[in-house]
Predict the structure.
Amino acid sequence: MLCCVCKEKEAKVHLTQIVGDKMQKVDLCDECAKQKGVDDPTGSSLAHLLLGLGASLESETADGAAELKCSHCGFTQADFKKTGRLGCSECYIVFGEALESLLKSMHKGTRHVGKTPVAQRKLRDTQKQVKSLQDQLNKAVEAEDFEQAAKLRDEMKRIQMKPPGETART
Amino acid sequence: MNIHEFLTPPAEIARRKGPHDRIVMSSRVRLARNIKGAAFPGYAKKPDRMQTLQQIQPAIQRLPQMADNFAASMDEFSALDKQILVERHLISREQAARGAGSGLVLNRDETLSVMINEEDHLRMQSLLPGLQIKQAWQTIDTVDSELEGQLNFAFSNDLGYLTACPTNLGTGIRVSAMLHLPGLVLDEQINPIIQSVNKLGLAVRGLYGEGTEALGNVFQVSNQMTLGEAESTIVERLEKVVAQIIEHEENARARLLEKKPKRKMLFNHIGRAYGILANAHSISSKETMNLLSLMRLGFDLGLFTSADRALVDELFIMTQPGHLQKQHTEKLSTEERDFIRADMMREHLLKVTRPVMKA
């Protein structure tokens, strides 16, 4: 098992903490464990550790690096540390990476499997189709089959044009 | 119309039937959804919450499933109204603590309820009697699909439905079943069962959810993980686990009836429960629920022949503090409530004759 902080070395320190009725697990290599100060597991909070909000936050501020902040709603990393909730849906763009190990510890996986809104599904299908046409188009150009290439280009335009507006939604 | 005129009387609720309702009191599926780009309720300023409420509430009221609905902002409810809604599992305790800027939409038979601006912009639930997890999921899935055409839900291809708390991320689904397990409790098998259910990644909680005790031997089993698995997988797993718990409970009941020392212990508990409830002049809500649970078991085992189990289920609803207070205009102290509760029990149990138990 790899260390969930550096993701490079073998994890040697395995911690489990129960907060309320939630169980959190973290696996660290010796070096990261020492760096995070978890030689004494009773003295540290896993949530902070997992989110890189503990020791690393202090060192970051010391280095003068800016704290993570959502440009959409102004929610900060410190706010998350306080509440355990995010500020808005756009926060996930900013905090997504920092959340990865937390998500890993609390869920079955870190990628959504399941229901997808219809509009989103259509958009995904369109993108897939466009990509496949683009590949064909590249091949046609390579083969100097310009008649076919023109056809493919028109087809791509047609797909991208309809349904209007939906491509703008992400 | 006020909420009390709208709510179904406890006697009627208690008579609703569902598959396996001997053990499964209700099945519930709730989904968490948010509006893209709008600050989550816990972080939003009040005017923003008012705005999302005004945007969401009419969209829900327009749903065909909500043809006859009750909708209100949380500040329109008295503290007592909110308590009654909590006791009916129609709002969370967290929502009960909220005021203007948060709201509730409820359908006619209380099987569908949508909380607006709780922890997420929308928390919608389908609640059905007995073991109907799949049906509850289908109902709420349809509602969700209809709403997504009207509201721009926050969704990402990688993380799924985006929620205020990362614990709900992905499907935003919480599937739960409310189980009555007096047999496993009396046979002292409940703890190993809870532990093995926990190992499957499912949570076991008390009557009112997170952080509450299992009053009246009622346990709530629900999923915890919401990301990385499809809704149908989560629903099916919970259904399978609940089916197994039902079997364990039935086996425990059979074991208790089988031989003398256990049977005596069982009869002793049920007989005493009847004795106290039928004769007490002061009784707390907690004791009442625990004793009603034993009487409910007695009904299931055919020991009470002169009445219907629905009577116990009705009393189970009526005895809760909010429901009890509602029947009286003046504000009751805890002591007065205990007197009135005991009076109510004695009166209702007049129709029930002593349990028939052959040693």
Observations:
- The longest helix of chain B spans residues 231-258.
- DSSP finds 14 helices and ten strands in chain B.
- The mean pLDDT of chain B is 93.
